[in-house]
Write a structure and sequence with these properties.
Blueprint lengths: L14 E6 L4 H11 L7 E6 L2 H13 L7 E6 L5 H12 L8 E6 L16 H25 L7 E7 L12 H20 L3 E7 L6 H10 L8 H14 L6 E4 L4
Parallel strand pairs: 1-2, 1-4, 2-3, 4-5, 5-6, 6-7
Bound molecules: NADP nicotinamide-adenine-dinucleotide phosphate.
Length: 256
């Protein structure tokens, strides 16, 4: 697949960009691409738990001379906790006075969770803990960033929800994952309906070669055909740069 996304003038603008789950997999690949399309004065927040992987990514970007005009912060937090979400919003808020013209929030962090028959989920704490990261933190983080950077005229606002085929399709024993992805999809459709100033996209990135897929293979023995993360991230980048999707839409890797 061609790596050429656009003419070199193509840009996401002077951006406050937040990518959750940037330490690995799809989020990491996307961070590399995004950094090449941000204008001077942009701020990129790389969010995940693993401080060392985030730091390594930042250094990688530096050595590849990506994002030279950016301020890059590694935000090492656990997004399933109140503090983790608050620290991320606070870090974004520190740049409130920067003259940015685009807020781009990529809600990518997620976990697979337990793959077990429905009747095994009798522990409320276990279920709540899964939903804390995969549903609640996404809502609270997006709401917090919306408060910090109110969508006003002249400010482009984009939210990406990393979705999945399983937001729409029921898969036996995947009740946690399917339910969380379906809930996120509706959450962002509500945001799109409520606030026309915010462009919302649910992107289903297709099967990719990541740690999550390694876990799926180990737990289920199923081996999907996997695409490189960069290929899927490139498709998402093109959608964001073209910016002609309908707010609230669900776009799938295989349809693009
Ligand atoms: N891989 C696929 O085939 C596939 C297919 C369809 C959809 N998706 C979706 O695409 C997105 C990316 O998937 P992926 O395969 O790249 O996943 P991955 O390799 O498992 O990476 C998940 C990312 O989320 C971060 N994360 C996990 N728990 C966190 C927590 N509590 N707090 C903060 N960050 C946390 C991880 O970083 P740390 O461990 O450092 O915290 C990592 O950066 C997910 O939303 C996934 O559901 C993936």
């Amino acid at each position: 697949m061609s790596e050429v996304l656009h003419a070199s003038t193509s840009t996401l603008g002077r951006c406050m960009c937040i990518i959750t789950g940037a330490s690995k997999g799809f989020g990491r690949a996307l961070a590399h691409l995004v950094s090449q399309h941000l204008k001077l004065g942009s701020v990129l927040l790389l969010v995940a738990r693993s401080k060392s992987l985030l730091q390594e990514l930042k250094e990688e970007m530096h050595s590849l001379k990506e994002g030279q005009d950016l301020t890059v912060h590694c935000v090492s937090v656990d997004l399933s906790t109140k503090e983790g979400v608050k620290d991320t919003v606070d870090m974004a808020r520190q740049h409130k006075e920067n003259e940015i013209d685009h807020v781009l929030l990529v809600n990518n962090a997620a976990s697979l969770g337990d793959i077990s028959p429905f009747e095994s989920f009798t522990d409320l704490d276990q279920v709540n803990s899964y939903l804390a990261l995969n549903v609640s933190s996404t809502l609270v983080l997006t709401a917090g960033v919306l408060q910090a950077f109110p969508p006003i005229s002249g400010l482009r606002w984009s939210v990406v929800n990393c979705s999945s085929t399983f937001a729409l399709q029921a898969l036996p024993s995947w009740v946690l994952y399917c339910s969380a992805k379906a809930a996120r999809e509706m959450m962002f459709r509500v945001l799109a309906a409520e606030n026309p100033s915010v462009k919302v996209l649910s992107y289903s990135p297709g099967p990719m070669d990541t740690e999550m897929q390694e876990t799926i293979r180990r737990l289920t023995g199923v081996q999907y055909h996997l695409n490189p993360c960069r290929e899927s991230a490139t498709k998402l980048m093109k959608v964001l740069l073209d910016n002609d999707f309908a707010s609230g839409a669900h776009l799938d890797f295989f349809q693009l």
